[in-house]
Design a protein that fits this description.
Blueprint: H1 27-45, H2 47-55, H3 69-81, H4 89-102, E1 107-114, E2 119-126, E3 129-130, H5 137-140, E4 142-146
Antiparallel strand pairs: 1-2, 1-4, 2-3
Length: 147
Amino acid sequence: MTAETNQELPSTAMGFRLFRSISLISPAVAVWILVGVANILRICRGMDGVYSLVRSYPAPSQATAAVDGMAVKQAVTRATVFFPFSTQCLIRSAVTVALLRTRGVVAHLVIGCRQLPFAAHAWVEVDGRPFNEDEDVARLYVVIDRI
């Protein structure tokens, strides 16, 4: 694995290599497949399945690279728009965290809820700030978990 290409990606929680090398598969297809895996895990194993996906991409102890955040957001948006099933905030956020972590960014999946009207929401934080949401999201929801 070279630092400049980030070719080797970590294995998933299901114990197999999702992608051996980014050079073997286009980034857009890789994101689309990752969205599919996240949906399958959510359907088969619920929240624990999605958690296991995020945990299989360990957060680096410190940021190792500058990443174009807009490119990551666009890749996830494109993959979810053309995905045949509904992609909820949990799936989008889990995939975004996995992508950011494979690129050396310390990213966290955050899950929050509010009481009235009841709602639950998932988002991504980088450096303690929402990455794929408005800054107000942390004020609107009580954080119940951060992975």
